[in-house]
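Please, is this right?
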Amino acid sequence: MHDWSIPIPLTTLLALMLFFYARGWRHLRKAFPRIITWGTMAAFVVGVVFIWVALASPLAALDDELLTVHMVQHLLLMAVAPPLIMMGRPALVLLHGLPKRFVQGIVGPFLRWTPVRQFGKIVTNTAFCWFAGVMTVIGWHVPAAFALGQHSVAWHEIQHASFLLAGFLFWWPVIQPWPSISRSPNWSIPLYLFLATLPCDALSAFLTFCDRVVYHSYLSAAHSFGISALQDQEFAGVIMWVSITFIYMIPAMAMTVRLLSPAAPADSHIPYGPETDGNQLLSASRVEVM
């Protein structure tokens, strides 16, 4: 706790996001109470809170001391916060919460700009999203890259940002937030999630059973909780193994059951609730950007 202080810029940014989201949610809630629900807001707010916990809470002050804490941070940033935020329909709600002039004068033209549209199609491709998510996890756990993040404040922040960005990309094909349109067959998403668990399981198994400390910076850390660097590494590996397996496989199984159900609609894709016609919501309200 002596090493922890609230990072004002990040906390302010997250607070502003919540403010504008709540403003947009309130506006849409009046017109579409069955679509813009309390659950929608709860998912977004909890996701933002988890980002704050990972990067700004006292937990962040311990990541140089314990690999277990470092692993929890990465799981929150990549596997927990992004899907929750995306389930909150952030683009749609924020477009109604931000100032109208800002949306129509800056956000709208930017989103309609052809290079932005083309870039968006590339980075939201299912194969690209899978590759970005998996390689971010594997790449930053290579000892040389990990050490770079541990010994440089700038690289440490880049590491956290890349985990968060990769998390949003990875979950994009699974949740398909507005205004994206699914281009993959429904059966491919459970396979997508299952294949993503394999490299993560291999990495976590290696950390758990390799019987040596992989990241040497933790050998000289203060271990105030009374565990050795090797025990800390084993705990981190187990947390990653169990968490990723449940976080990825539960939605994969839910989607599989839904697809195999005789009553399932042919276009069923998202296991988290009914799909929303975002263009209908926009056309019925005061904001037009598309």
Observations:
- The chain has one domain: 8-265+274-283.
- Confidence is low (pLDDT under 50) at residues 266-276.
- Residues 72 and 239 are 8 Å apart (CA to CA).
